[in-house]
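Example 9 (inverse folding). The structure is encoded as follows.
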């Protein structure tokens, strides 16, 4: 339904009680909606992503979902997403920088979407969210839609009653204010993004990219998400549990490395080999203690946690793009044995390697990806 009237839907009087979501599983590429399927053809319909826009929204955080979901990427996955910008309040609407935002869709369209994203919002919308938007977000959640907030958009989700008893995050600068206003929310003020069942929340600015790529990874697998990241010229993956703020690393000594990028690339090329902190530190020309401290300062996790995440992500790509048995994937990713791979893979992704392969290989059958279009390594 196109946006027609200036009168928003009536606000709900009570919010449904929210409970922590189930263990995360790969989100369907096209969640069911009330819209009828296309007739006269067998082509699947695109997954609809609706972004709720409020006045004076921060420009960057609003632009990220437009970049990830709004560009035509049918050469990677066909169909790609369908992006709809929905007016969260009567317009005309502009960003914080004064750019006009066309919003041809309204709150009814928001409710009908497969994924609902509440973009970051200005302080007035945080303190007094538009009643119609609150009602629409509640209704979308009750209908089983995936609900996402970026940065301060989490205020809308909390005001709608969706986060009571759930884990969530927001920009660290807003953490104290948010925790004071919504004490019933289990706020993690350090995470890049948090996934609690069908509700996902992100921190500010750059973490919007992390969360949107995480959604692509959920829907289409690691290889597709990595290709989108490659085209955006950003790192392919940062775990949601990584810290959103860290101390500045010590100034490197003369002749020393100006960052960890070289040793990270060195390690990615050797994931099939034994990797230890001592070996990584030697490759970085640092002592073990200095390397471990620098690593945590810059990445927010330990070196061995990072290696484990990289190995699991490589395993995801191999499961998606090859017919190698699990035993071979375990050897190629440095896990050694299939039981070891299954243990760590399930712990980090919540599903078994076989289930992951069945989900994403079946989706790959309908993709029209030119040979060589997807990178074979997490970062090229």
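The amino acid assigned to each position is listed next.
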């Amino acid at each position: 339904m196109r946006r027609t009237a200036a009168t928003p839907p009536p606000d709900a009087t009570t919010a449904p009680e929210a409970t922590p979501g189930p263990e995360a599983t790969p989100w369907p590429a096209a969640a069911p909606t009330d819209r009828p399927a296309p007739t006269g053809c067998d082509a699947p319909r695109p997954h609809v992503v609706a972004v709720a826009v409020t006045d004076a929204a921060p420009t960057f955080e609003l632009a990220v979902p437009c970049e990830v979901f709004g560009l035509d990427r049918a050469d990677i996955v066909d169909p790609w997403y369908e992006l709809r910008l929905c007016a969260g309040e009567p317009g005309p609407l502009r960003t914080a920088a004064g750019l006009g935002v066309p919003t041809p869709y309204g709150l009814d369209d928001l409710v009908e979407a497969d994924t609902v994203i509440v973009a970051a919002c200005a302080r007035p919308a945080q303190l007094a969210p538009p009643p119609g938007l609150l009602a629409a977000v509640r209704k979308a959640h009750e209908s089983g839609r995936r609900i996402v907030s970026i940065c301060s958009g989490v205020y809308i989700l909390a005001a709608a009653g969706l986060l009571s008893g759930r884990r969530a995050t927001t920009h660290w600068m807003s953490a104290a204010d948010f925790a004071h206003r919504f004490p019933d929310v289990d706020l993690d003020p350090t995470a890049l993004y948090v996934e609690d069942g069908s509700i996902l929340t992100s921190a500010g600015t750059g973490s919007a990219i992390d969360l949107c790529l995480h959604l692509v990874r959920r829907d289409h697998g690691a290889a597709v998400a990595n290709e989108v990241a490659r085209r955006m010229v950003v790192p392919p993956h940062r775990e949601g549990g990584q810290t959103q703020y860290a101390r500045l690393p010590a100034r490197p000594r003369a002749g020393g490395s100006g960052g960890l990028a070289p040793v990270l690339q060195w390690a990615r090329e050797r994931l099939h080999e034994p990797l230890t902190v001592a070996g990584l530190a030697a490759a970085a020309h640092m002592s073990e203690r200095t390397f471990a401290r620098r690593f945590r300062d810059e990445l927010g996790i330990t070196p061995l946690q990072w290696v484990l995440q990289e190995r699991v992500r490589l395993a995801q790509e191999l499961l998606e793009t090859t017919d190698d048995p699990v035993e071979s994937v375990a050897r190629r990713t440095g896990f050694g044995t299939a039981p070891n791979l299954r243990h760590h893979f399930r712990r980090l992704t919540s599903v078994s390697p076989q289930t992951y392969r069945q989900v994403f290989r079946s989706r790959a059958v309908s993709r029209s990806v030119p040979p060589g279009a997807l990178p074979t390594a997490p970062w090229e």
